[in-house]
Amino acid sequence: MPQTTKLVKQRIQDETEQLTRSERQLASVLLQDYPMGGLQSITKLAAAAGVSTPTVIRMARKLGFDGFPDLQDALRDEVAAQIKKPISKRDGWVVDEGAEHPLMRFAQVVWANMRHTLERIDTAMFDKVAAILADTGRHLYVVGGRITRSNADYLFNHMQIIRPNVTMLGNSANVWPQYLLDMDEGSVLVIFDIRRYEAHLEKLAQIASERGVTVILFTDQWGSPIGRVANLTFNGLVEAPSSWDSTIALQLIVEALIAEVQGARWEESKERIEELEAMFSSTRLFRSPT
């Protein structure tokens, strides 16, 4: 079963306080064009960062690698993991079929994903995002990809009940420019994008960012390219013993945010819920439990 290992950028973030000024310059360049920036030659990378090649080697060793080639091997592994097709994802898992029931094996992986995701999450950023989502003065737009559409739907359905001014972007990317017309500096765009990252979502994020929109990204441990323009990013672990990734760790964050936003504006959301329930009763949309 694949081991949860730290990505190069996580090592950089963990070791930031221990880096010299030159090494921090180098780290900044690596993170600005991650992971491709680290795959260029050592001389080009050093020149781009304005440091010496020995500085590149020292920082690689400080991050726990044998040298710069070892660091680049780790980056190549990350790139390969990002673009895995469903069949190759499943082939990468080696499990003892007789160890326990498949449900328990899968659950153990998901629990580990949630635990590691929570260990890495920035709680201050979580609070900031919750405050942004609770601000009804900001129009909230939500969109997901082919696999993450269900996560986006879940967030949209609950936010729409809790607060006004919430829009779910249509399934077709062809109509997204019509939504962009109404987006401005007061708007918030929440995007879900995990590997294999979707180019049309990246373009949407780029245009929205250029219009001053606050972009909030939910992505996997490797990080969607949208992270380059996102203002705030949640990374969740998604690998599972399946041909498809598991978004349960990201869904945990989503549900926690929903609870926090509802709590922050309870009186207003309570009124909306009561009004909604009255509509359900009058239309007899749902069967009464009694």
Automatic annotation (TrEMBL):
Gene Ontology biological process terms in this record: carbohydrate derivative metabolic process
Keywords carried by this UniProt record: DNA-binding, Transcription, Transcription regulation
SUPFAM superfamilies: Homeodomain-like, SIS domain
Ranges in coiled-coil conformation: none
Molecular function as annotated in GO: carbohydrate derivative binding; DNA binding; DNA-binding transcription factor activity
Superkingdom of origin: Bacteria
Domain called HTH rpiR-type: residue spans: 6-82
Listed InterPro entries: Homeodomain-like_sf, HTH_RpiR, RpiR-like, RpiR-like_SIS, SIS_dom, SIS_dom_sf, WH-like_DNA-bd_sf
Gene3D superfamilies (alphabetical): Glucose-6-phosphate isomerase like protein, domain 1, Winged helix-like DNA-binding domain superfamily/Winged helix DNA-binding domain
UniProt name for this protein: MurR/RpiR family transcriptional regulator
